[in-house]
Amino acid sequence: MKILVIDSVANELFIALIRNDAVTIKIFASPRQHDRNINCLVREVLSTGKTVFLELDAIAVVTGPGSWTGSRVGVSAAKAYSMALGKPAINITAQETRDKLIDSVRDAFNNKKFVAARELAPQYNSEFKVTLSKK
User: Fold this and answer.
1) What pLDDT is recorded for position 37?
2) What tens digit of pLDDT does each residue of 67-87 get?
3) To which CATH superfamily is domain 2-119 assigned?
């Protein structure tokens, strides 16, 4: 089992590679730069695990709830990887801890809870508010 995990819904960008019982993790802690760093972190985590894209069994992505832009960045990357490689996608909701996230991904993979890449969609929890200024 080799699964790429993408979680970009929070302030930090979290990328992991699950290889059977081993997990390689990379975190980029600067907010609002996920789009600029996601591909670099994916490349780093794959090279650390000595894995190439073609060896992956699935792509897992946290779709939310979380920030709208962060969700879109992760989902877009996961869709691209999944479609380009012809690998199944796993849709995961945000978890309280990273350990629970990894466990959820493993469970979804083992139970074959895959979705087509085109069905991945970001979820967000921000409320859009308009305030009128008085002039």
Assistant:
1) 86
2) 788 889 999 999 999 999 999
3) ATPase, nucleotide binding domain (3.30.420.40)
CB neighbours of 34 closer than 8 A, spacing ≥ 6?
Answer: 8, 13, 28, 69, 70, 73, 74
**Per-residue pLDDT, 87:** 94
CA 25/CA 49 separation, integer angstroms: 10
Three-class SS state of 103: helix
132 token code pair: 């009128």
CA 18 to chain centre: 13
Residues constituting the chain? 135
Stated pTM of the model: 0.86
Is the distance from CB of 114 to CB of 90 less than 8 angstroms? yes
